Each structure stands twice: as structure tokens, then as C-alpha cells.
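[agent] plan:
  1. take the single chain provided in the ticket
  2. run structure prediction with default settings
  3. attach C-alpha cells to the ticket
  4. add a short note for the reviewer (M.T.)
[agent] executing step 1
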Amino acid sequence: MGNLLSVDGCAPIHSYYSSKNWIEGAAVRQLEDVARKPGVIAVAAMPDLHPGKYGPVGCAILADKIHPAFVGADVGCGMSLFALDFPARKIRVDKAAERLRAIESPFDGDVADKIHKAGLPVSNFDAALGTIGGGNHFCELQAVEEVFIPEAGLDRDQAYVLVHSGSRGLGYALLERELSAGLAPLDPDSAKGRAYMQAHDHALRWATANRRLIAERAAHALRCEAELICDCSHNCAGLCGAGALHRKGAAPADRGRVVVPGSRGALSYLVEPLVGAPKGALASIAHGAGRKFDRASMAGRIGATKSDRERLTRNPYGGRVVCEDRALLIEEAPEAYKSIRSVIDDLETFGLVRIVASFRPLVTLKKVVEPESRKEGRR
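[agent] step 2 finished; step 3 output follows
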């Protein structure tokens, strides 16, 4: 059922993490703050829980109104897994890393055509379609490590691409609009509530199209084709009978299989949410490993020497990390994240998922700095 956190004046908080997962006190305090807000009905906290800017990350929140702050700025951020029609054994990591660098630049194809085919309205942010973005976003070339459910039909010899990205400037503009209005909760039946959900749903579909185009660009760079395995958003809101179910860093458990990624130095897991999972989980599961240390504190922990920074461009599986932004390389180091195995273990222990397969990272693309930018950075 999960552990019930009973706090006076709070909506019920069900937690789905054990003592082996690192949970900051600040994240728990944010959970309690959220649960105290008027109209909040229930909160579910996942094992990847950590503090966020507008509230906790790694949770689902059921409320009688729409709370844009609960979704945050990167509306539609999520994970998409694609199978490539190319055998993993033929991949030469260094060569693949060099080819994938090309997708860090803006898409030079027909963006308008991609927008039209995705059934999206034109927006001021469409030039960013097909780009990864910053922070913890990435495009990762992967190989199957282990298949736990053979009948799932995964080809263990194929290469795969996992994309983590969102709606880029579109989602940020939506939150800015709500911030300027005071971030007040919105009645789902009001004009403002309907307007927010219309813009929210546009951002979700834009983010899905963005991940697809990133994968297509990666496949093109590797001279192969990509086929979608699964896609989901972990920053979103949906209307339901009780009001609105918000997910902030929480993957849906009611839409099929989900990838729960580890850090760039760890395995990622394809999982299948279980029918009959505890209702207190609010049809949600963890979205990743979750941060152990915030970005600011990482600068003093690692990367002080050139050899240490070079170490960060490789992973324990012999793979490459393409990240030419020194600060980002350190902020997003594997040491910044919790153990993905501990997160998955908790999801299994609480009856939320079963593991379908695990994937190891071959090439993780984060950030490419063009030669001219490097020159400017030295001035």
C-alpha cells in the first residue's frame, strides 16, 4: 500500500520508497507544503523524490483544481524509447559519438512539415523542434543488457535510442504566463482553466513530436531507421472525476510500458506497471533515478582535475559521453544521482512494476560546443 505519512493539516501522503533510497528532508518538507494547500486531495511520493524549484520532483498530486506550479515549466518533458534497425554489436562507440554530434545543432529540415504532420498548430517555438535542450535532457544510444520477460518481444541484438526532452521554450512560456497571473489554482471548468489545459495539451504533443524528431535525427546520423517502442510524459496534468491529477517527475502507470532511466553511467529499465497496484500511488511510478545532490553542490565534489573530467566522458560500460559544457558535465555526473537499482527495487517491492528489460548506455549525447563558441568562451 505504501507508507502513509500522517501530518496534521495535510492531505494523505503515500510514500513508495524505503530506507535504502536517499530522500532529502527538504523534499519531504516540500511534500508536506503541497499536501497543505487548499483543495489537495492526495499525494504520492516515489523513490526518486527530490526537491524542486516550485515543489517536489518525483510525485503525483491529486487536487480539485489545476495547479500549473505542480507541473512546472517543462510541460510534456518525458521519455521515448526507439528501436533501431541496426545491430548493437556493429556499433563503434567513438564513431557513433562523432556522428551523433550533428543532432545538437538546430534541425535544418522542413520544420513546418513536421509540425503539420504532428497535427500541431504553429507556434513561436517551432524552430527548436528536434533539439535536446539543457539540464538533464539527453539522447542516448543503448544496447540491451538483459531481458527479463522474453515474451515482451524485444530484440536483444538491436540497438536502441532513448530520448529525454520536453517542450523547450513552449512550456516555459506557459508557466511564465501563469506566474504573471499569480500562479493561482484554476477551476477546470473556467475559461482560464480550459485555456491552460489547451496550451498544456499542445505542449505535451509538441514535446512528443520533439522526441520523435530527435530520434529520427539520431537514426539518420547512424544511417538506420527508428521505430517507437514507448513514449510518456512525466511533467503533466490530466482532468479526472475528482479534479486534476498532476505528475511532476512521475511517469504514468496507466498507459503501458515505461522507461525508467538511470544516470548516464548506469542502466536504464523498461518496466511494465502492474494492474492492481496500490491506489495510493495515483496511477504513477518513478520517472528516473532522481537527484542525490543538487547542481550547485556538484562543482566542489568532482571534476577538479583534467583527468577527473576526462573520466566523466566515459561510462563503466565502455561507452562515451558527449558533453562539451564543463559545468554541465559535472552537474549531471553519475555521482549526482541516486542508485537506479534501489529505485527499481522499491517500485517492485511496493507492487508497482515488473522489469521487462535493462539497457546499458553506449553513447550519451548532452551538449556540443561549436568551435566558434569555444573561441568566444576563451575571451
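[agent] step 4 note for reviewer: The chain has one domain: 3-377.
[agent] ticket updated
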